[in-house]
Design a protein that fits this description.
By secondary structure, this protein is α+β, with helices and mostly antiparallel strands. The mean pLDDT is 94. The protein has one domain: Alpha-Beta Complex (Aminoglycoside 3'-phosphotransferase, Chain: A, domain 2), CATH 3.90.1200.10. α9 packs across α11 and α11 runs antiparallel to α12. The protein is globular. 45% of the residues lie in helices and 13% in strands.
Length: 362
C-alpha cells in the first residue's frame, strides 16, 4: 500500500472518530479489495479499502472483464445493495462511515463465525447442527426473493445504482472463462474457433432456462466464504451477508445453486437434495409464479454454467494472479458439474463436454 493511500485512510478514520483504533489485517478474497479489523476501546469494526477501478489488468483493445460481466468497480453498489438488504431485515453490515470517492467504508463487524469454517468443523459455534445453518441460508434467500426485483437502488449521496441484469454480456463473458483459461492452462491447448462456436450455440439453446421464471435480485456469490452465522439473531437475520456488490437481476435459481453447490466446501448430494426440497416446498407457497419443474431445469442449467465458469476461474487465478490455492477446488467443482449434467435438459451440453473436457480430465 502506498504512503499516500495510508494517509487517505488515516484521514478517513480520524474524520470518523476512529483514529485511535487498533488496526490489523483481515483475510480478504480473490479480489483487489483489502480489509482491516479495527478495535476502538473494545468496539469492533471493519475497514474496507477499495480503490476505484477494474478488478484485473485491462487487455489493450478490450473492455475490462469487470465491466463486461457487470462486476462492481467501486464501493457504491455495495452501499446501495447493503441498504436494500437491511430494509428486508437481512444481516448486511451497517455502514458507520463512508468516503465513496476514495473507496473507504467503516463497517459493522459481523464476527468470525464464517460458514466455511463451521462446515469444515461440522457444527455451529454453539453446537448447532449444520442442517440448521443450511435451513437459515435457505430462509434468507426466500426473504430476499419475496419482494420484486429493484430497478435501481439509492446510494445515499443523491445518486442511484441501476441494477444490472444477467444479460448476454454477462452470460457470454462467463461462458468464455473456461475456454480462455482451462483449455490453455490445464488442457495445454487453445479452444478452436469451431469449438467456441459450437459451445456458445449450445448455451444459446439453453438461454430460455436461464431466463425462466420471475426475476429476482440475486447476490451472485452466495456461498460459505461470504456468509457468517449470527445464531443470536432471529429468522433470516441469522445469516450475515458480505460480498454482495456484484448482485444482478435474474433467475431465482442462481443463488440457490451457488449455496447448495458451494465451490469452497463439500455439500454432499443428500444435503443438497434435502435443502433443495425445503426451498421448493416453501417457494411454492411463498413466491409468486413459482413452477417446480421449470425451477429444477433452471437450477441444473445455472449450476452447470456456474461450475464451468469456476472451472475456468481456478486456472485463471493460478496463472494470471499467482494464487494456486484455488486449484484445490477443481475436483469438487467437477463433481458439481456432473451432478447438473444429469438433468435431461442438458443432454447435448453433456455430450460436448464429454468429448472436449471431461474425457481429457483426470
Amino acid at each position: 500500500m502506498s504512503s499516500s493511500r495510508e494517509e487517505t485512510i488515516r484521514a478517513f478514520l480520524a474524520s470518523a472518530g476512529w483514529s485511535a483504533a487498533l488496526r490489523r489485517p483481515l483475510a480478504g478474497d480473490a479480489s483487489t479489495r483489502r480489509y482491516e479489523r479495527l478495535d476502538l476501546n473494545g468496539h469492533p469494526a471493519v475497514l474496507m479499502d477499495w480503490p476505484c477501478g477494474p478488478d484485473a489488468p485491462v487487455v489493450p483493445g478490450r473492455a475490462a472483464y469487470s465491466r463486461i460481466a457487470h462486476l462492481a468497480e467501486d464501493c457504491r453498489p455495495f452501499v446501495a445493495i447493503g441498504e436494500h438488504l437491511r430494509r428486508l431485515g437481512l444481516a448486511a453490515p451497517e455502514i458507520y462511515a463512508a468516503d465513496l470517492d476514495n473507496g473507504l467504508l467503516l463497517l459493522e463487524d459481523l464476527g468470525d463465525h464464517v460458514y466455511g469454517a463451521l462446515i469444515e468443523r461440522g457444527s455451529g459455534p454453539s453446537g448447532e447442527e449444520l442442517d440448521e445453518l443450511y435451513r437459515a441460508g435457505i430462509e434468507t434467500l426466500l426473504r430476499l426473493q419475496s419482494v420484486p426485483a429493484p430497478a435501481a437502488l439509492p446510494v445515499g449521496d443523491g445518486s442511484e445504482h441501476a441494477m444490472p441484469h444477467f444479460d448476454d454480456s454477462v452470460y457470454r463473458a462467463e461462458l468464455d472463462v473456461i475456454l480462455d483459461w482451462y483449455f490453455p492452462v490445464v488442457l495445454q491447448g487453445e479452444a478452436s474457433p469451431a469449438m467456441r462456436e459450437d459451445y456458445h450455440a449450445l448455451w444459446t439453446s439453453l438461454r430460455s432456462l436461464v431466463d425462466a421464471g420471475v426475476p429476482t435480485l440475486f447476490l451472485r456469490d452466495y456461498h460459505s466464504p461470504n456468509m457468517l452465522w449470527l445464531g443470536e439473531r432471529q429468522g433470516s437475520a441469522r445469516v450475515g451477508l458480505i460480498d454482495y456488490q456484484d448482485a444482478l437481476i435474474g433467475n431465482r435459481a442462481y443463488d440457490v445453486v451457488s449455496f447448495l453447490q458451494d465451490a469452497r466446501r463439500d455439500v454432499p448430494p443428500e444435503r443438497e437434495r434435502a435443502m433443495l426440497a425445503l426451498y421448493i416446498d416453501r417457494a411454492k407457497s411463498e413466491l409468486a409464479g413459482f413452477d417446480e419443474e421449470q425451477f429444477r431445469a433452471s437450477y441444473a442449467t445455472l449450476g452447470a454454467e456456474r461450475a464451468l465458469r469456476l472451472i475456468g476461474l481456478w486456472p485463471r487465478l493460478l496463472k494470471r494472479d499467482g494464487k494456486p490455492q484455488y486449484m484445490a477446488h477443481m475436483p469438487r467443482t467437477m463433481d458439481y458439474l456432473r451432478r447438473n449434467l444429469a438433468h435431461p435438459a442438458l443432454g447435448d451440453l453433456s455430450a460436448w463436454l464429454d468429448a472436449h473436457v471431461l474425457s481429457r480430465t483426470s
